[in-house]
Amino acid sequence: LMVMLVLGGECVAGAPFLRRGDRVLCLGDSITQDGRYLAVLDVLLRTRQPGEGIRLYPLGLGSETVSGLSESGHPFPRPCVLERSGRALAMIKPTVVMICYGMNDGIYAPPAEDRMRAYQEGMKELVKQCRGAGARVVVVTPVPFDAKSFRGPLADDGAEAYGYQKPWHGYDRTLAGYSEWLVGSEGLADKVIDLHGPLSAVVGAWHERDAGWKNGD
Q1: Where are the beta strands (DSSP E) in the chain?
Q2: 179-192 as b/e, with b when 16 or more CB fall inside 10 Å?
Q3: What is the pLDDT of residues 49-74, one digit of tens each?
Q4: Could you tell me the end-to-end alpha-carbon distance of the chain, in angstroms, rounded to an integer?
């Protein structure tokens, strides 16, 4: 719903961001490939902007990054969206590209300058490619990492290795740093939508309401 309130609909002052006939390419990792939030967005677009002919093209890919980083414990080198973005842009010919990366880019570890730099450079390059293809760009901050819901062991400070199977217990702080950079990067994209902040508040409230509640991907 937060995405919808920014991109279009009657709840936002001024004209909706999405226009009649827009072709929206949606790039992201497994959270985007899962498709549920895009299905909700599609329903909202059809009801809030009916007859506009706005089409979503979901091309999320599990394990993917925008940074090109991977971890030693992963069963294969993680794919990088920059390896396929040119083909996706050429095939879909989008007027809008929505980008959501970050969960896999911190490699489930504490904040580090080199990983942050790789994320920043990868995001800037992807936005550059999208704009070069004539598309307007929407960047969505990474969603929270909910340590209380993680179904597995968490790594302590100073662990020898971190990864998706044993992430750092404070990994959400890494994602918060990525989110802060995106929100504070004026001119990076046509729109930056902060999901991390609002969803963190919602997840915290749900845990307070029900100690046994668990979040999904």
Answers
A1: 23-28, 55-58, 96-100, 136-140, 191-193
A2: bebbbeeeebbbbb
A3: 999 999 999 999 999 999 999 998 89
A4: 17
d(CA 69, CA 109): 12
**Is the pTM here over 0.90, yes or no?**
yes
| CA quadruple 206, 41, 8, 98: dihedral sign | positive
- Bridge partners of 26, per DSSP, are 58, 98
Give the pLDDT mean for 26-47: 95
Helix (H) or strand (E) holding 118: helix 113-132
* Length of the chain, in residues: 217
Cβ-in-10-Å burial (0-12, 13-18, 19+) of 178 comes to buried
